[in-house]
Amino acid sequence: MSAAPGRPAPDPGPGPLSGADAQRAAELIQIIAERLADPVAVAAVSTADRTPAHGGWAATGLARGHSGVASFYGTLAWSDSRWAATAHAHLRRAVDAISSEPSAGLALGPAAVLSAVQTCGAREGDYAGLRRNLLGAVAGRLRERLNASAGAPGTAGVSGREHDLISGCTGVGRLLLDAVDDGTAAHPDTVPALRSTLRRLVRLTEPIEVNGRTRPGWWTAASKGTPFPAEGANDVFEVGVAHGVAGPLALLSLSLSRGHTVRGQADAIEVMAEWLVAQARRDAHGPYWPARTGAEQEPGEGGSRSTAAWCTGTAGVAAALHLAGVALDDAGRRSLAVEALRAVMERAEEERRLVGPTVCHGHAGLVQALHRVGTAARDPALLAGARRMALRMMDEADEDAPFVFRHSVPDIEDGRVTRWTGVDAAGMYEGAAGCAAALLTVTPGHLLGPGRRGTDGDVAAWDRILLLS
């Protein structure tokens, strides 16, 4: 079917997967769909299989909860409507758990459930009442949070938790962007909350003084809660899309392209995009980005080791930069993004430093980024790369595992990763649902069912939670 682990997979040719590869992908999607169908059983397996580095099950969660699983079934239902009932079953469990779990940006709580409901609403008007209620809760909480941090960033820097994709305003803002354009579930707080989010992200570009030096306003002190402190440094710039400035750049760019703007938005996109361009490093294959860089490092110097992963690596940064290039009609930024993703595919597997099959730091996230940018740029090399990485991900399938694909979590001793351990996780960011959703992207629709699919292979914008669409 595909190359053995550690060797480059062959180029499967133009279009989606074909022949035996396509059949195998469809079989894996079907198996995963059957294994994740029972909400009670999925929660039981996920709760039992946990490590100190993996928090286990959270019912409302996108990473490892019912919301993430429902998003997969909502996507699959575009090809086979029989799965809509299964999506609904997981959604009910997620909704029931809202009052018992904390709200944490996009990751947990009402926003996570809203994301799943948006994806499961395949037909106009689906879940309109639920979406409206969730929007009211999400928009209200977001505006309270933004008002609480309305002061100038100042010399102390900002908390990465304020504006990142997973727990900050950026991920929630992405849901509001779709809600504003959806007339079937309007809520009066939606537009004001989106505009407040965009204004907050624009303000991140206001320079601040740090130890006598001028820095961009998104500089983060290590004590301010950045999830990944810089190696050997007391402060840090997060680069990647999940926790760094590439996330706000992607949302500002998507909003501009869709006609939703606030004062200074185009200039802010320019500032963030130019900073990312300056942070690019190069090797023999082409440009790449580190996950983070210290404040004392000059552009192009040092930084953490690179990875191709969606969450903190080159895949997510390149996708965000391409969105900026589209929004500003800047061919140079678009070209750099494509060049960086082509370079990812030219590197040896060990140089990509992907871990496992799942979306966050594994092959599924790279599949989706390659597909999105490749489709937007009409670049055959990137689309072929998406298929190659899908084949590589399929090599990691284990049908003896409860959910077929296992999520890799680090074992850490003395602050260092000593090995990676596979856990049985079911959600989108960190589980089998995300792997299956990425496979849906490259699998011919007729192998999955007679339903409606997009002309480029997309079935629904589940990857809004990745800021890829």
Topology summary:
Layout (H helix, E strand, L loop, with lengths): L18 H17 L3 H10 L17 H11 L7 H13 L13 H11 L7 H21 L11 H4 L5 H12 L9 H14 L4 E3 L2 E3 L4 E2 L13 E4 L7 H12 L7 H15 L1 E2 L4 E2 L3 E2 L20 H14 L3 H16 L2 H4 L10 H15 L2 H16 L11 E7 L2 E8 L8 H11 L27
Write up what this structure looks like.
This protein has 469 residues and is mainly alpha-helical. The protein is built from 17 helices and 9 strands. It has a 3-stranded antiparallel sheet, with no helix packed on it. The longest helix is centred in the N-terminal third of the chain and has 21 residues, at 128-148. The radius of gyration is 21 Å and the shape is globular. The model is unreliable at 1-14, 224-234 and 297-304 (pLDDT under 50).
Low-confidence parts, pLDDT < 50 over ≥5 residues?
1-14, 224-234, 297-304
Main sheet strand line-up: 3-4-7
Query: What number is the mean pLDDT?
Result: 85
Q: What percentage of the residues does DSSP assign to strands (E)?
A: 5-15%
Please bin the fraction of helical residues: 40-55%
* Number of E-state strands: 9
Structural class: mainly alpha
Taking the alpha carbons of the first and last residues, their distance comes to 30 Å
Q: What form results from the Cα inertia axes? A: globular
Return Rg in Å: 21 Å
> What letter string, H or E per element, gives the SSE order?
HHHHHHHHHEEEEHHEEEHHHHHEEH
User: Main beta sheet, described?
Assistant: 3 strands, antiparallel
Continuous helix count: 17
